Amino acid sequence: MEWGRNAGTFKVLSPGWIYFYLSSKRYPLAQLGLCGISYFDSMDTIRLNNIVLYARHGVAPEERELGQRFFLDVEIHADLSAAAQTDKLSQAINYEAVYHTVATTFTGSTCQLLEGIAWRVMQALFQEYPVERVTIRVRKPSVRIEGVLDSVEVELSRNREEMGDG
What secondary structure letter does DSSP report for 165? Predict the structure, then answer.
């Protein structure tokens, strides 16, 4: 699909990206998704990978009583240009503070579902930091499933607008 005027041309290309062409240069604008359009995001990214926490989440009473290890990946998108330009921690999102927010929220309550605790962590990050988008992956290695697998993982990803008031 293609449409445009004298200033440039818009094209929808596989795998669903919308591009704007101007003077033979291609600029990605948005990606078409199953539930609408996800706008092209030039935000910077901070990732905390493979956080290991001991907590009491699960459906079974033993899981909530005994607890177990969980592994989390946290990805936050924000404008990091002030920190990059000044090289000052006061202009940055402090990774250690983010870690403590994640750890305190994750271990401070009990949820039956991984989705529930991931949502609470996202809410805390949006409340505490000037982030525009958060993605949380929670892995549970000890699952009560008959079969062989390393872990079960839930991933939630939202932007500030989608979270609303939390």
Answer: T
User: So what's the pLDDT on residue 31?
Assistant: 47
**How far is residue 74's CA from residue 137's CA, in Å, rounded to a whole number?**
7
pLDDT tens column, 30-73: 544 444 444 444 679 999 999 999 999 999 999 899 999 999 99
* Amino acid letter, residue 124: A
pTM, 2 dp: 0.74
**pLDDT at position 69, please?**
96
Interatomic CA distance for residues 105 and 122, integer angstroms = 9
CA distance 21 to 60: 55
For residue 23, give its domain range: 2-39
**CB under 8 Å to 154, separation ≥6 — which residues?**
113, 114, 115, 118, 137, 138
The CA distance from 118 to 53, in Å, is 13
d(CA 165, CA 80): 24
> Are 88 and 71 in a shared domain?
yes
Q: What is the CATH number of the domain that holds 100?
A: 3.30.1130.10
Question: Among residues of the chain, what percentage have pLDDT more than 70?
Answer: 73
Using CA of residue 146, residue 112, residue 46, residue 164, what is the dihedral sign? positive
